[in-house]
Amino acid sequence: MVSARTSALVVLIAAATTTLLLAHHADAGRILEEVDLCQKTDYPILCRTMVKSKVNAEKATQSAINYLILQTREAKTSSSKAKADKSLMDVCNEMYDDALSNLVTSLQNLKSRDKPSLQTNLSAFISDLETCKDTFAESNAKLPFENIIRLLEQMASNSLALAAGLH
């Protein structure tokens, strides 16, 4: 005959096992949900390149912003070699500097978990790029690096979408 103590132990083990299985199932569901953080972005293929298989929203956002910083620095370097009116290029170079500053601040916002400021600074990045584009448009001049700016704006859009998913 089984003692009351043994029965209680069996019930306790069964309850613990059930709890662990349910917790594991919940974690697995959460991880599967997070695996494709880029699914809801406007440019998911580009996003996946930016986040490099990160499944944590904060780490994915950080990776995306770091990637955007790198690409913006490269864009600034290549854009500075473009043959265009110097005054127009000066505005764009200043906007690139402001844009990079906004991205660095975005990383600080992310680290301090200041989601509203993070989103504000990522939006300001896009505004800086738009100012460069507008400068050329208002002068009826062709922007020689329009494709680069479009790509940077798409990356920033993805970064904003990832930031929106932060808790």
Automatic annotation (TrEMBL):
Residues 1-28 form the signal peptide. Coiled coil: none annotated. It holds the Pfam family PMEI. SUPFAM superfamilies: Plant invertase/pectin methylesterase inhibitor. GO terms for molecular function: enzyme inhibitor activity. Residues 30-162 form the Pectinesterase inhibitor domain. SMART domains: PMEI (SM00856). Keywords: Signal. NCBIfam families: PME_inhib. Belongs to the PMEI family. This is Pectinesterase inhibitor 12. It comes from Rhodamnia argentea.
